[in-house]
Amino acid sequence: MISIDEGNIFYLLLQLSIIFILTNLINGILKKINQPTITGDLVVGIILGPTILGTFFPNLYKAIFPQNLVQIAMLDTLSWFGLFLVLLSTGIEVDFSSIWKQRKNAMIISSLDVIIPIIFSMFFIYFLPNEYFEFSDNKFITTFFISVIMTISALPIAIRALREVGIMKSDLGFLIISALTINDIIGWIVFTLLLSLFSMKFFDWKIAIEIILYTGIFTFLALNLGKKIVNWLFSKVINQDSEGIQGVLAVLISTGIVFGLITLEIGIHTLFGFFIAGIVAGDSPIFTKSARNTVHNFVYSVFASLFFVNIGLKINFFENFNLLLSLFITLIGILGRYLGAWIGSVLSKNRKYKNIIAIAHTPGGEMHIVVSLIALSFGLLSKELFVAIVFAAILSSILVGPWLAYAAKSFKILDKLEVLVYPNIKIEAKTKDEAIGKMLEFVNLKDKKNYIIKNILEKEEEICSGLKNGISVPRGIVDDLEETKIIFAKLENPINWNSLDGKYVRYIFLILTSKKNEETQIAAVKKITQISKNCLEADELNLLNTTEELERYIKNYIAS
Questions:
Q1: Which strand (E) or helix (H) includes residue 5?
Q2: Potential cystine with 45: which of 309, 333, 475, 512 (Cβ 3.0-4.6 Å)?
Q3: Average pLDDT over residues 1-19
Q4: Pairing mode, if any, of strands 417-427 and 484-495?
Q5: Res 110: pLDDT
């Protein structure tokens, strides 16, 4: 019987301490230059693994990472549990109820962003030299599997890029996130089903149909009955504890485990169960933004880093790196995803923003690495192809930020802009509904006030308008509005707006525009987002105490 002794625990703690110290140092630098931390995690793995430490300092490498089965299994177990939590956290970011309202346009974009990249990638990958397919009995099937991996766009990377550019809180930003989310869901369903089918020693149509049927039933029940049960459990733990974060975490992880066991029993990968559990939990109104941030920070500061570092500890990247193959996979992946989203934007009547939507779909990111690692473990990829996909995922994630920022420069204030400051500047309100209602009373909207409030609050449910540093930017569509109006007010008492940074809102920029002038809304949201990122700019709003000063400052800043 193999047992764990104190020596094993010592080495595990030594490994973890070195990993966490290095990842924190490198990721701290990457965050300052707005680059994804997954890059830093992989770099740490490459430094500590056989690529660098194992090649140049083999004795030190073996001393820190003894190559015995128990020691390797201990780190593997922790990293795989970390991966389960990464999928759980990814699912939490999916606001399924809100996204369902955008299903028409988003579904067209995301569906084509799955179908077209698969066809596009297959056409080119199939003609790769046979040496890359020595591990497979069927080149066509393997090519199809690799092409499915290439379709999944990186939702977290795209969200980060949209936030950096400043259009995340606009209607366009919500459409992009909706399409990417559906892309994620479709991609994971297709991937897990294919993985299950490929894991069969002998293909059986009856078993294949049963797996697909059970997966559909499980997903439907989870998103309906499962959501109600999880929401009820959340309410119970919140009632028992005013903060409720410990109980929320317990319910969240327990749901992931239960769903993971169910999917494993069905015959699809456990990861899909954790992903669906995250979607179900994230759809609960009780699961607040601050609780989501706590979970996200906990997962990505500890467990996600461990998983991606562990990849570098297992593979010699220099030995398996093929520059031409890596560049080829990168180019095919980016072009396929761009083309799919571009055509989807045109067909969904979003031609005006087709370039921005397409660019946001290009990053590969962490999910490419996750699914390709699973494919590698099933013997469906060679190490050379795996390293090429990892390279493509990292490079596409790095490129999307600057590319999106360059494309977003085209957004301008296209129509007349009227800036209004609420009389006496400050208003008293206890809720966002009350605050928005009072601000609309200041504008002559005749008998449309109730309709516009409903429109604004529906958008709030879709994507919270709370930015950083106590600023919010609610938006409303007024069909016959001749000029865009930005109404500004300070709150007498800050309101909990469910903002991402957890701060209460002090300043409200209410944007009213017509559908035909949507680009002005996007440009205005972009500028106000820049104010929210800069603490000095946000503080300056507090120093301006007359309506004239505020109107001049806001108009000059937004129109610049």
A1: none
A2: 309
A3: 82
A4: parallel
A5: 82
* Cα–Cα dist 388/52, whole Å: 18
Q: How far is CA 241 from CA 229, 320, 326, in A?
A: 19, 52, 51
Strands 484-495 and 505-513, how do they pair? antiparallel
Instruction: Kindly report, residue by residue over 70-117, the tens digit of the pLDDT.
Output: 888 888 888 888 888 888 887 787 666 666 666 677 778 888 888 898
Contact 395, 459 (CB under 8 A): no
Q: Is the pLDDT of residue 18 over 80?
A: yes
Could you give the CA distance from residue 36 to residue 366 in angstroms, rounded to a whole number?
10
Closest by Cα among 26, 27, 8 to 78: 8
Cβ neighbours of 174 (radius 10 Å):
23
User: How distant, in Å, are the alpha carbons of 81, 85, 286, 392 from that of 292?
Assistant: 19, 13, 11, 29
pLDDT in tens, 239-260: 655 555 677 788 888 888 999 8
Taking a C-beta distance cutoff of 8 angstroms, is the pair 92, 167 a contact?
no
Packed helices 171-198 and 365-377: angle between N→C axes, nearest 10 degrees: 0
Give the DSSP per-residue string, 99-158.
Answer: HHHTHHHHHHHHHHHHHHHHHHHHHHHTTS-GGGGTT-S-HHHHHHHHHHHHH---HHHH
Please identify which residue in the block is written with the tokens 């070195």: 18
Residue 490's DSSP bridge partners are 426, 507
C-alpha pair distances (Å), 143 with each of 187, 330, 436: 16, 15, 53
Instruction: List Cβ neighbours of 115 (8 Å cut-off, separation of 6 or more).
Output: 340
Residue 353's contacts (CB-CB under 8 Å, 6 or more residues apart) are: 172, 345
338 band by pLDDT with thresholds 50, 70 and 90:
very high
Q: What is the pLDDT of residues 458-469, one digit of tens each?
A: 787 777 788 888
